[in-house]
């Protein structure tokens, strides 16, 4: 099942394998005609990823959202997973999708997606997800039937240090 394979990559924090699994799924199920001029490509890829994840994430998550508000924007997809049997050991996954205008632009768009998450959404974690111990962010870019995945992980300690620095800098 390709949806389960994709989901497992998020559970394992494996961006390289995620890119491979997404690539395989795009090749198998997305038509080149789906990505033609005139289509809202970002919505197409977002729906592709949302459909794959929402079909399998619900049993292991107490929260899943597509286009849910967080911080000063709306993340394409966000969900919380228990990392272990200990319900206090949870990670938040935030995904932002971008569309590249060429194959050469894929990595740049993934970088822009990660920056967007850090600039607009990370601050919203404080009030919305009080029991999260890790945040994993993913910038996923698409061009036709290709994709590029970049990720970063922040532990609770990193998150607390980030917020502490902001409190010190607060006017």
Structure summarized in a few sentences:
The protein has about 170 residues and is of the alpha+beta class. It has helices at about 1-10, 15-30, 40-55, 105-130, 155-170; strands at about 65-70, 75-80, 90-100, 130-145, 145-155.
Structure commentary:
There is one protein chain. With 171 residues, this protein is of the alpha+beta class. It contains five helices and five strands, in the order αααβββαββα. α4 (106-128) links the parallel β3 (90-99) and β4. α1 runs antiparallel to α2. The longest helix is centred in the C-terminal third of the chain and has 23 residues, at 106-128. The radius of gyration is 16 Å and the shape is globular. The N and C termini lie far apart (52 Å).
In total, the number of strands is: 5
The radius of gyration over CA amounts to: 16 Å
Low-confidence stretches: none
Mean pLDDT: 84
What is the subunit arrangement here? single chain
**Total helical elements:** 5
Silhouette:
globular
Order of strands side by side in the largest beta sheet?
Answer: 1-2-3-4-5
Which helices and strands occur, and which strands form pairs?
Elements: H1 2-12, H2 15-29, H3 41-54, E1 63-70, E2 73-82, E3 90-99, H4 106-128, E4 132-143, E5 146-155, H5 156-169
Parallel strand pairs: 3-4
Antiparallel strand pairs: 1-2, 2-3, 4-5
Helix pairs in contact: 1-2
List the main descriptive attributes of the protein structure presented here:
about 170 residues, alpha+beta, five-stranded mixed β-sheet, 5 helices, 5 strands
